[in-house]
Amino acid sequence: KAGVTQTPRYLIKTRGQQVTLSCSPISGHRSVSWYQQTPGQGLQFLFEYFSETQRNKGNFPGRFSGRQFSNSRSEMNVSTLELGDSALYLCASSLNGEKLFFGSGTQLSVL
Amino acid sequence: SQQGEEDPQALSIQEGENATMNCSYKTSINNLQWYRQNSGRGLVHLILIRSNEREKHSGRLRVTLDTSKKSSSLLITASRAADTASYFCAPLTSGTYKYIFGTGTRLKVLA
Questions:
Q1: B18 φ/ψ sector (left φ>0, alpha ψ -120 to 50, else beta)
Q2: Which of A46, A94, B69, B83 has the fewest beta carbons closer than 10 A?
Q3: In contact, B87 and B74? CB cutoff 8 Å
Q4: Beta A101-102 vs B43-50: how paired, if at all?
């Protein structure tokens, strides 16, 4: 079974731009959650989707948004990028909301 | 603020020694999980302990949970250089679908 796939692996953007990150969960997993990881803050929860519905949301500004498609693939979008958005963005899928399977992440650098 | 707070932040031990990491959390939980992360890659699930369990073993790993103190510990016995990684606890808050990770414990096992 293929693991969680995140694309792209690396991304460089400039301030003010917007970015879309993609996550393909493990086949059969309907829950997808997103995390932002920075050296000082650890992993911060962004949001969680199940069957195209956002069930939980973290404390991030409205510039951070996401969605999930009918095939469970998920995307997250960050608009009007700021320097502080530079981070590793991790996606995780889950079969039953318990054990999380993580992708390798997308390393976003904002210049 | 983080739900799971790991302690210590960093730990350096010799190969063959035991490593103990602690986690404290703030709310009632359904379960608590421990994850390992190597070099900024995706996290790997290690073990899950439910709120009605007190201790769980998996190979060289032993996890304890004390819900009255809202704390958990992860013990790695006979550690190896390959155990060098960051370790995160992730409590699942009751009634939600979000795991709130802490900043992790950075373990270094010296050969």
A1: beta
A2: B69
A3: yes
A4: unpaired
Judging contacts by C-beta atoms under 8 Å, the chain B residues touching residue A101 are: 45
In Å, how far is B10's CA from the nearest CA of chain A?
13
What DSSP string runs through A10-75?
A: EEEE-TT--EEEEEEPPTT--EEEEEEEETTTEEEEEEEEETTEEEEE-S--TTEEEEE-TTS-EE
- Name B78's bridge partners: none
- Chain A contact for B86, CB < 8 A? no
**Token pair belonging to B88:** 């995160």
Closest CA to A38 of B104, B9, B44, B83: B104
Three-class DSSP category at A84: helix
Q: Is B76 helix (H, G, I), strand (E, B) or coil?
A: strand
Token pair of A33, please?
């959650």
The SS3 of residue B103 is: coil
Interface test with A, best of B31, B98, B103, B106 (most A CBs within 10 A): B98
Distance of CA B26 to the CA centre of its chain: 15
Q: What is the mean pLDDT of chain A?
A: 94
pLDDT digits (tens, 9 = 90+) for B4-14: 788 899 999 99
More confident residue, A1 or B24: B24
Average pLDDT score over residue span B34-40: 90
